Amino acid sequence: MAPLPLVNSPFILDSAGVAGLLGGDEAVSTVALTQICGGRSWLGWYNSPGSYVVGKRFQQLARSARSTALRSDSGRHQLTSVDPTLLFEHDGLSKGPAYKGIYSGTSMQATGPLAYLLTKKSAKASNITIKGRTTHSVNVSITRIKDSEASSQPQVKLHQRPRFLALLPIAASVGTCVTCGFYRQWYAFSMILLGIFARGLTCLFIGCGKLVLDHPRPAKGSPNGDGILGSDEDFILLKGSESVVNAATRGKFFLRFPSKHARRMAEFCSTLLIVQAIAQLIFIPQGQLFGKLMFVISLICSGAYNLWLSSVDKGDVEETILESVLGKHKLYKFELPNRCSAVVFMLLVFNDGDEPPDPRVLKRIMNAYLPLDSPVWEKWKEIVIDQLKHGQALQFDDSHWNHKDFSEGDRQLLQDLLEDAEVVYNALENNEEVKNALKDHKAEKSFAKCVSNEK
Questions:
Q1: Which of 77 and 347 is assigned the larger pLDDT?
Q2: What does each C-alpha distance from 162 to 16, 158, 167, 403, 427 come to in angstroms?
Q3: 8 Å CB contact between 4 and 188
Q4: Single pTM value for the model
Q5: Residue 155 pLDDT more than 60?
């Protein structure tokens, strides 16, 4: 046998076992990306740092497992679903803003992850400015979701990073493991081999699951799903059928495995990863310098790969998730000078059909986002609703705000509010940029109707 290298070196590497505890966040991220980045289930066979952190996360994953039975033509199947947020520490799975259904009357204080992704997409979009009496500008975005993949629980796959680069940490781990065996560095050999097996099995298990979206199915005859997502400064007019709007507002992601033993498998992976981390702490210091060096080299190569893979652009991941569930959809964003103008804008955009609007729906929108029990505001709502109900233009004169029951200050406020409504109406009628955007939006509406009729 060849002489062992570095046998007489004075260099000491007794803390090498601790290296396996580092890089936990990147290790978790790359395990999670195994699910989203297609074709990586079999590319996790390398000794990776951070096994203890991944093992603890898999403990939580096992506790979240829920079994369900699925009936099909081929018989009854047992499925296991787990909460992916325990692995995907990603903004894309956060909760979304409040939602109010225009026709259904649904009110939700928090929505699902797709609604959150829509708000992030809206925040990045460029806006069309409608000028007027400025107090505190409010953004209103419009998007129409077509009846597409949302109801079929689509798989989410991201093909961004080249898969062949995963061969580098695999080659480094296998190479250092074989080298340790050749020089009979059995402590390092066994720990590297254990790391390869633990990591590979973990990625293979996660890759067997499907990232799916579950959401409530609407009852037959449910009203249109149109509604408003929003906070104080940003609103999104969400237009579409009740099914796709449910997917956007109530949908929840799950990792679904076609086996009732998925919980036990998650527990086994967790135990294996934690045992690996503890064993490395105990046995690596017992080895010789050359074996420790081989162990550290394997971790450096895999750690660098984990860092590179986990640096995938979150914006691309979010866009892929959003489009894979809701399909490609355009978003039009407008900046309004104040909250009153924003509400009038939403009323006019929702009333884009041929039938006269329902006054109760108009009042519901107004009461949701504007002050209540104020004589001036109530009078303003009454005037605007009356104009819209009869299909009249929002054009006002002295007779609309000169009420003898109001003080001079109240009359001035009512005049300002009515002029705000008039400015928005004129912008929709005369501003070419606004008209073109809304024209494009209405064309999408016609296309969505065609798709729905074909189905």
A1: 347
A2: 31, 11, 11, 71, 48
A3: no
A4: 0.75
A5: no
